[in-house]
Amino acid sequence: MMTTLDQAIELGLNEDEYKETIKYMKRTPNITELGIFSAMWSEHCSYKSSRKWLKTLPTEAPWVIQGPGENAGIIDIGNNLAAVFKMESHNHPSFIEPYQGAATGVGGIMRDIFTMGARPIANLNCLRFGSPKHVKTKHLLSGVVSGIGGYGNCMGVPTIGGECTFDKGYNGNILVNAMTVGIVKKDKIFYAKAGKPGSPVVYVGAKTGRDGIHGASMASASFDADSESKRPTVQVGDPFTEKLLLEACLELMETDCIIGIQDMGAAGLTSSSVEMAAKDNNGIEIDLDKVPVRETKMTPFEIMLSESQERMLMVLKPGSEEKAEEIFKKWELDFSIIGKVTSTQHIVLKHNTETVADIPLEPLANGLIYDRPYKINVNSKSIEIPVSNNWEDALLTLIENHDLCSREWIWQQYDHMVMGDTIGMPGSESGVVKIHPIDKQALAITTDCTPRYCDSNAHTGGMQAVCESYRNLCSVGAVPLAITDCLNFGNPEKKEVMGQIVDAIRGISDACTKLSMPVVAGNVSLYNETEGKSIPPTPQIGAVGIIKNTDYQLFNIIKNINNQDIIIIGKTKGHLECSIYAREIENIEDGCPPNIDLDEELKHGKFILNLADLNLIDACKDVSDGGIGIALAEICIMSNIGCEIISPKDININSWLFGEDQGRYIIISSKSEEIIKKASDIGINASILGKINGEYFSVNNNSKISIEKLANLRNNWFRNYFSNKQ
Amino acid sequence: MKPNIIVFPGSNCDRDIHVAIKKTTGQNSKMIWHKETTLDNPNLIILPGGFSHGDYLRSGSIASRAPIMKEVIKKAINGTPVLGICNGFQILTECELLPGILMRNKNMNFICKYTFLISKYENNWIKKNYINKVISMPVAHHDGNYYANKDVIEKLNKDNRIAYQYCSDIGTISEENNINGSINNIAGIFNDKGNVLGMMPHPERAIDVSLGGEDGINFFKTFFEKLG
């Protein structure tokens, strides 16, 4: 039956796009074909608004094996091993159904990693919720955290870090970004490709149901008051089946049966078959009657657009079907030869012996690309933040703030130790996992973004996100290698939002180029808005670095408390605009974000790594949200020891303690003279703040707060929140 | 003879315990798939942690009916040492090699953290000099809330079969240190013969200071030393 423009619009295509489909088809597409076009051309699958700008990102370095465009990015980590990683969003589903939305987000990103032949070794997640006072926040937070834990814990992959912050800008549209890192032998990497015509196309994993139908289009539309009614489009996760799929795939990958493999993620069977077949200019023919289904009378449209989880599509070497089937039978998973690779350059679908779709692959695979108009709005107005001299009240308020307090309540619900390689726990500057089974080498992984900076200036915000991830890696003694991004923005059809996207990408690009951290994978999530109101721009960064000798790993906990000085690297000017201090103490959210000096970032990071190699550091922490005050309080709380610091005379004490100037690190060391000399030799600003001693956070020898009190405030926010004390 | 590690679909600590035993004692373990029906000359049978069969139905219940379990039960009754950790403990209660059940944690959440433990009696796994000494091992479970009726608990107590109890850093056993709501802070128990041990804490994760603790080293060393 022929389709109409109304049907196209309902599926998320606009009038011009519908006309394009007719042009490519040379006739009016039927509903199955239209569904396939709308999924492949959705923002989620085609990156049509962002692709022009994503192409400008730096993606190359000698250690990059695979840049953007595949399931995940791959970098060389030595010893014939490679790290495979990517971050992906699952925002809209998590808002509608927090447990399943978050769980399937974690499941989806892990599949992206093991599709390439890698065993996942670490998960991280970045969560942005609305105001803690918002009526939905408690429910969303507890649901998302249990969903992430529910899936990752069952898979036996440790969840080793991430972020969680709150802002009223996410009241109607939370963000759930999940990242997975895996390890693969360099000569055992798998790609989505189809090989020669005639090769069998095989479906493995869970059966196809009616869940998540056309989810990619939902993820590409804005929210309105009816979004709750979209709950049936959220997929349901089955981590047990995924664990079996992981083991079965890795077992099959040990053989030489596979030509190409692709997971069925967004747009399910549609995108996986199109992407594989188009890769080598082939065609593909699928018999939909052979697709394992769990419900009766599923239509071709439903089968092709279902986003049921835990499924894979593979092209096998002809003749190896039996061997492959045996492995999947062992793991009690469905295995079905559903079609073959052809030379037609078309995707052809059969159902009840009839051809139900026949579409040229090229326009589907190439997608659309838009050059959307944009306008860059920069809040360049610098403002004065009033400050008091009462640092005690400020520190007591900030340490208990929902964005600065301990996240233990969250990460104790994640198994962060399974696999027995976690040597940098959640709560560290970066999560650290040993590279199994290489002795004394480890990967450090961090995720970062400061949305309130991005909201004020997306270019600075983009740079800052990369720089903070760089600092977090250096703070554990890891050499930064590469990043994945996950760009969360509002509606790109609005010029101001498009301007934020363009500007943030420019910022990421500038910082990555300077810091030699190429972007090897990425994901874009647009239309994050509710009833016309966009989220704060959130270009999330996930970064990976390597610790070449774990004897020189750095920690934010002091090992030896005797005779230790506190040193700060980098200049403290006391920048309070856009800081948490300004927001929480003075109730001001305007102003400019702190300046980023990329040359300094690079120089300071290299300096920290050099000091680590020389074994001059006892503990290290980068200075970020909440400034010196919060960074030092955290070190003291985690080490259960006090500090005595002296503030400089030429700066207000609260600007000094809570200003968020960038490029800074706090070092705890008994070799302070040597460090200061080395810093001054190469023109780095370094000074002694004071020393580690006693049981108090003490400033200028005349006022102090007990570390125990700070620890209690820092540790209790989440517990109190869920016991309804707030 | 060698340790036999039973691998169920959904087990996820099987590799970890293999690595830990190798690292701490030099012993190579044999992995046994749940569908097999014979064991390979075991000096120790291990039911590892994880989510066997997704923990669907009840944690450990489907695994307790696996083909290999008939053989495991037979060997256990004949005195072969059996160690069930976490999901393995749940399987042991489900197949009734150990009494009681493991319910959902009292706060309803999954809990992953280091906990302090104390043991009061000498046995296969615990040397005399470790009696009443506080050790530390991590837990990672959703269903670790041990329960058994009064008669069973009395018997466990009387027969010195409570292997580990959750406690404070100085060894106080109180409700405050009861992480999951277990009756009498029970973290691990023995069967009546003392050859079957089920425990929620993960000794295989505590084998290096860099991992957060090393009390697991003694755990494995003690067992194989006593085995001779």
User: In this structure, how is the largest beta sheet of chain A organized?
Assistant: 7 strands, mixed
Oligomer: heterodimer
Strand content of chain A: 15-25%
Query: Total strand count of chain A, please?
Result: 28
> Which strands sit side by side, in order, in the main sheet of chain B?
2-1-3-4-11-10-9-6-7
The assigned structural class of chain B equals alpha/beta
- Unreliable parts of chain B: none
Number of helices of chain A: 25
For the record, what CATH class of chain B applies? Alpha Beta
Query: Termini of chain B, distance in Å?
Result: 12 Å
The helicity of chain A comes to: 25-40%
Total number of beta strands of chain B? 11
Which structural category fits the helices and strands of chain A?
alpha+beta
Radius of gyration of chain A, whole Å? 26 Å
Q: What is the tally of helical segments of chain B?
A: 5
How would you state the average pLDDT of chain A, rounded? 95
Task: Quickly give the CATH architecture of chain B.
Answer: 3-Layer(aba) Sandwich
Q: Provide the domain count of chain B.
A: 1
- The general outline of chain A is globular
Question: What is the share of helical residues of chain B?
Answer: 10-25%
Distance between the termini of chain A: 57 Å
Plain-language structure description:
The complex is a heterodimer of chains A (726) and B (228). Chain A has 726 residues and is of the alpha+beta class. Chain A starts with a helix and ends with a helix. Chain B is α/β, with parallel strands linked by helices and 228 residues long. Chain B has a single domain, classed as 3-Layer(aba) Sandwich (Rossmann fold), CATH 3.40.50. In chain B, strand 3, helix 2 and strand 4 form a beta-alpha-beta unit. The radius of gyration of chain B is 16 Å and the shape is globular. Chain B starts with a strand and ends with a helix. Classes of the chains: A alpha+beta (726), B alpha/beta (228).
